[in-house]
Each structure stands twice: as C-alpha cells, then as structure tokens.
Amino acid sequence: MIEVHNLTKHYGPITAIRDVSFTVAKVAGYDVFAESLEVRRRIGYLPENVPLYTDLRVGPYLEFVAEIKGVPRSDRKRRVVEAMERCRILDVQNRLIGKLSKGYRQRVGLAQAIVSDPAVLILDEPTIGLDPKQITEIRDLIKSLAGDHTVILSTHILPEVSMVCSSVVIINQGVIVAQGPIDSLVEQFFPTARVEVEIAGPSPDAVREALGVIPGVVSVTDVPGSDGIGRYIVESSRGRDVRGEVFQLAAQRRWDLRELRRIGMTLEEVFLHVVAGEQSHTGESA
Fold it and tell me: Would you call 145 helix, strand, or coil by DSSP?
C-alpha cells in the first residue's frame, strides 16, 4: 500500500511535481520523513541507467547488494538464487556484468531491485534501449513481479503502460491531471464508442446519411482514402454496439461491406486529450 499526500519536489528552479496526492508520503505503513530508513529498506529501485559494477560477476554482485540491503546472512544465498531465477539469469551468474548484453544487464538490474524482497518496486524506464525481443521479455518479467510486489512504473512509452499497468497517474507540468484504471479513464474522457466501417460503391453522402439514423449513433466521419473505398468512423453512445445494425443495413442495401470493426480508445489518446485540455486551460487563464 502506498499513500502520497500533497507531495512537491523541486530540482533547482524546476518543479517536477506540485502538490501531488494519490493512493498506491506512506510506504508499507511507514512515513517517508519520520521513518525514511524503514521506507528505503522496503523499496527496490531500478533507475533508467543502472549503476552496475561491470567488473564483478553476476552472482557475487547480487550477494554484495543483498548484504548492503540488510538481508540476513542465513537468507542471503537463497534470496540471491531466487532473484536470479525470477529474472532468468542463473545461466550467467558466473559471467562478468560488463560482458553481458543490454538485455541481460537490465535483468541483473531487476534482480538487484528484488533481492531483498521489497514491498515496493520503482522502475524508471525499464525497457529503454532494448530491442523488441528484450522489451517483451522484460515486460513479461515486470508483470510476473506485480503478483508479489507493488510496482510503480515511470515511463513515457504509453503502449507499454497499457500492457503492464492496472492503474495510471498522468502528470503534466508537475501536476496530476488524471488518475485511475485505464478503462475508467477511457470512459471518463471518451464517452462514446467507435466503429470503423469500409464500404465500396455508394456515395459517401448516402452512406453517412444512412448510418447516421441508426439508433444511438452520435456522428459519422469520413476517413480520407485514395483507393475508391469509403471509410467511416461511426461514434455511438457508450454501451451501444452498432455493428449488428451496420451489417444489416449494408446487407439490405446490397452494399459491398469490406470491413467492420470496433476501435478501442488508447491510453495515448487519453494522454493527448488530457494534456491538450490542460494546455488550453492554461492559455485561457494566462
């Protein structure tokens, strides 16, 4: 359990966050100011650029980290082995860290973050600089860790957030502008459902008029194309799936229906919508 209340952080003249509050400062029941040492003992941290000791071998490095994190000697070996197993680096435990690939070094970084079995994991851009295969592997690893730890992921890669996180906090210019489960944010900022339709043959005006009278349809918009096929985005009231009616309409009018699919709103669309709204509001205030 993490609770943050009215948190502000400055880096010189730059305000990184301003009066931020959310529940996910207490960490595992401890106050970050009055009991900072206890808090740090319960946090595993993976920075964007992991400061690994490249002249050490993987196993001894993790044993060293476990020692300085206060893991009891009697548990140290077991914890190191468990961390290597979770991060799938047992096969490289005797290799020099400096000789490992970027993907394996990132795994070692995750292993050092979990070797003390912390209640909370904070991961800063954990997949930056990795190739697609490595990104998938690290992403799967993070999802598996979420079963035993509270994981806070800091990243600007929004598709990654959608694949890994159950809840998000969007911060713009140091201020929280949206937070909550992704599905809830989509419903909050996009109260309509969208369907993409491809129809060959009839005039766009005729298609728009016919689609527009389907119950629940809010708007019908053309999508520009150059292959002679009409593409349309049909927006309807949330909870109304109009695909059946669109199909029946196309069949009745003998239209050549090429495609009919629901379009899911993305976290990126939510982010752009929220940030654009904040910037517009700021401009009006100025």
Answer: helix
Neighbour tally for 36: CB within 10 Å: 12
Q: Which pLDDT score is estimated for 23?
A: 65
Residue range(s) of every CATH 3.40.50.300 domain in the chain: 42-165
Cβ proximity of 165 and 153 under 8 Å: yes
Lookup: tokens for 161: 């957030």
Q: Which two tokens stand for residue 103?
A: 């993907």
Q: If 0-12 CB within 10 Å is exposed, 13-18 middle and 19+ buried, where does residue 114 land?
A: buried
Q: What local confidence, expressed as pLDDT, does residue 47 receive? A: 93
DSSP secondary structure, 163-221, as one string:
HH-SEEEEEETTEEEEEEEHHHHHHHH--EEEEEEEEESS-HHHHHHHHHTSTTEEEEE
Give residue 145's pLDDT: 86
What CATH number was assigned to the domain covering residues 191-263?
3.30.70.3190
Question: Is 62 in contact with 112 (CB distance < 8 Å)?
Answer: yes
pLDDT at 227: 74
Domain 42-165 bears CATH identifier 3.40.50.300:
yes
Q: Please, what are the averages of pLDDT over each run of 10 residues along the chain (286 residues)?
A: 72 79 67 78 89 95 94 96 94 97 93 93 90 89 86 90 90 86 87 90 91 95 81 90 95 94 88 76 48
Predicted confidence at residue 274, as pLDDT, reads 87
Closest to 135 measured CA to CA, from 157, 111, 165, 166: 157
**If you ran DSSP here, which 8-state letter would residue 94 be given?**
T
How many helices and strands, by DSSP H and E, does the chain display?
A: 10, 13
Which tokens go with 251?
A: 């069949």
* Residues carrying CATH 3.30.70.3190, the chain: 191-263
Q: Tell how strand 150-154 and strand 120-124 pair up.
A: parallel
